[in-house]
Specification:
Layout (H helix, E strand, L loop, with lengths): L2 E5 L3 E3 L4 E8 L7 E7 L6 E6 L5 E3 L7 E6 L4 E6 L8 E8 L7 E3 L3 E6 L1
Parallel strand pairs: 2-11
Antiparallel strand pairs: 1-3, 3-8, 4-5, 4-9, 5-6, 7-8, 9-10, 9-11
Length: 118
Amino acid sequence: QVQLVESGGDLVQAGGSLRLSCAASGISVSFATMGWYRQAPGKQRELVALITRGGTTTYADSVKGRFTISRDNAKNTVTLQMNSLKADDTAVYYCNADGRTWGRGNYWGQGTQVTVSS
């Protein structure tokens, strides 16, 4: 059974930083494409950042230069470092593990709330 558990969401002032963590079990973060997505009230869920099996990273234009995705294979975790936060970054952030290319499923965490006050 695959579980993704996010942590690190909080209320922070604009310009501040947060570090989100996703602890995975039942799937290796080095095996799947790991991603962070977010969903703001009244909006669709959107991609924030991805890290592929090979280590290639992709970012939404809105977070480039501010957010960094990384993984720790030994701890089986994925981290999203968020700097220079803006009010528009307010959303529920979800961890995703996509192993469909290799015969596994597509899995989501329960989400963690990030609120940025302006």
